Structure formats: structure tokens, C-alpha cells
Amino acid sequence: MCKGYAQANLVTLPKDIAYDFLLFAQRNPRPCPLLEVSDTGERLLKYIAREADIATDIPKYRIYEQGELKGEYENVVESTCVLALRRDTSEYHHEFPA
Length: 98
What we know:
Strand 1 and strand 2 (68-73) form a beta hairpin. The chain is an alpha+beta fold. It is 21% helix and 15% strand. It has helices at 15-27, 80-87, and strands spanning 61-65, 68-73, 92-95. It is built from 2 helices and 3 strands, in the order αββαβ. It has a 3-stranded antiparallel β-sheet with strand order 2-1-3, with no helix packed on it.
């Protein structure tokens, strides 16, 4: 690891379980540090990478549905999971590999 930098994963969750994950991460800061929390449906970051679009600006996305890897993508703009997250009815998890 590079001193002064953090490796991170992007996690997108339905609103009804997001608060529980937030509490889990706050209570476990070493294995699961929070770098930024966005509002529901918001794609642009405000603090750690101002104006970065989380649907296009990450090198690779892995999409899981119910714990099963559904695919790897270079962006998720038109992804059904991103569209579903806008409606806040999805149970998807995104991450990008190190």
C-alpha cells in the first residue's frame, strides 16, 4: 500500500439496508473504512474525488446479485442495477477490484 492513500470498494445498497451497513462500517473502521457516503440516487462524489461519477469513473465494476457475481463492466451507466438503485428497489452490490 502507498502511505497516505486508501484502497476502497464501492458499495451501493438499497435504502432499507444502507443504514445498517453504515453502522457496521462505523463500528468496524479498520476493515471497512468509510471514505464517503452519498445520498440515495446520487452518482457524483462531493469530497474524496469532487465531481467523480461513480457509474463511469471507476476502472472496473463487479456486479453481484444475491451474493452471486453477475458480471464485470467498465461502466454501469445503463446497468439494470443502477437503474434499479434510482428506484431504490434493488439488492445489488458493486465493487471494483484492486
